[in-house]
Write a structure and sequence with these properties.
By secondary structure, the chain is an alpha/beta fold. The protein is about 35% helix and about 20% strand. It is built from 15 helices and 22 strands. Strand 20, helix 15 (about 500-515) and strand 21 (about 515-520) form a beta-alpha-beta unit. The longest helix has about 40 residues, at about 105-145. The two termini are about 20 Å apart.
Length: about 525
Amino acid sequence: MSQTQKRRGRSGSSRLRLHFLGAAGTVTGSLHFFEYTTEEGEVIRFFVDVGLAQEDESINYQNRLPSGIKASDLQFGIITHAHNDHTGFLPKLYKDGFRGPVYATPPTCDLMEILLPDSGFLQEEEAAKRLARELRRQQSVRQTKPAKAKQTSAKQKRNAKQQSSAKVKKEAARPVLPALYTQQDAVQSLKLLKAVPFDQRFQAHKHVFFEYKRASHLLGAAIIVLDVGVGNKARRIVISGDIGRPDMPVLKDAVRIKRADYILCEATYGDRLHPKRDRLEALAEYVNEAHERAVQKAHAKHGHGMILIPAFAVGRVQSVLFDLRQLMASGRIAELPVFVDSPMAIKANKVYRSHTGEYNPKAEAARKKGDPFTTPKFAELGEAAQSKKLDEPSKEPIIVISSSGMASGGRVIQHLKSRLPGTQNTVLFAGFQSDGTLGRQLMANKGEEINVGGQDVRVRAKIAHMEDYSGHGDYVDLLNWLSGFTSAPKKVFLVHGDASSLAAFKGRVEQKFKWNVHVPHYREYVDL
């Protein structure tokens, strides 16, 4: 115990310090680190969320904990939901020595068992690519011969040769980043997970209690109502996680919280509004138009067209499937064959089917009539060989839902190579497309060639986009959620947003509620 802690223990005071170690001034990399020093001088250290930073991945290789704190010093962690920008750093903490329990809702635990090993596999794959690039560079340097100097002496030639050799040796010594963690690290970290149900006050440690409330953003996603301390010295911190949109497929709406001393609120869409339209009507229009295009047989080689829907395997695929089923059941679209072509999505479908208690009334009503994530002509394709057959000539139009959602990898790449040149095909993106992704490039394409997985492909297929499936509430949704608090908090901290969304939402909260709002910067800390 430090001298400061001993003095605090003798004085009978307590302190709760919050460090913003991720998603502060950025959208991803959530890591909120708490240090609570009790009146007796005991220090309790824990985190809420432990995500990968995706805007600047070099941050993940840095020491993300406060100076002097090791991973083994952390007693426990609490997770809001399963997305990698909230959980993907856990295997690194485990690798560095953290062994405390990590609490999450039951669906979140199940989804993390899918997502974290996959993240470990991708970390190893990227490390192998970095090594291969470096080996190619070194080989190129060795093969580069210095230009012959005109009329040089033997001594000058020797010096030039020595300098060239030293340069090659120096150039060949660049370090290569290893995998942040391995698939095995990720599998091992899953042993730390402890399931905690919604709506039950849980004691995580001495003087630390929390309760999960539904956030709607993703199956199992939670708002955390965190109570730290005892008696009249206790502080209540409400952590929003990611707040979902109202009346979305499958899940119940986000729960409003009435009281908090401090609020950590996300602001991902703090400067944006979602389209205000009937989502099912819009999807039906896109699918019917694509169906008309698909029946126009361009040539025998490709047969009828494909309606290709790139979608995130966890959350987005299930929402699209649910809506397609509703549209087919009501006769608003034809009963086309639907193929889910993603091993991860197939696993996620199974998790969604097993947590029926999270369904909203519409999804529960659909469940009573059958599986809400299947259609009359439906197949889940686990094998790569089955996936390849989808690009063979088809006797009728088909719908293929495949990951990844931004076309940044996965089986969807092969389908794009095969189907983009055909005018009878449609690519319907069902979510936001980030700058620099293939999905964004395709949305901006005007029929030119585009590089898809190392192959130049002419784009003749129809490219369409629906923003309606975003799992994030816009600024109106976030303000409505904050309206549930019946009294003003001492302070609101805005996290999870880029500079423009954070600044815009700060102004909106201050104007609407007259609350004290602060946008923390990376590695800032405050005493609550």
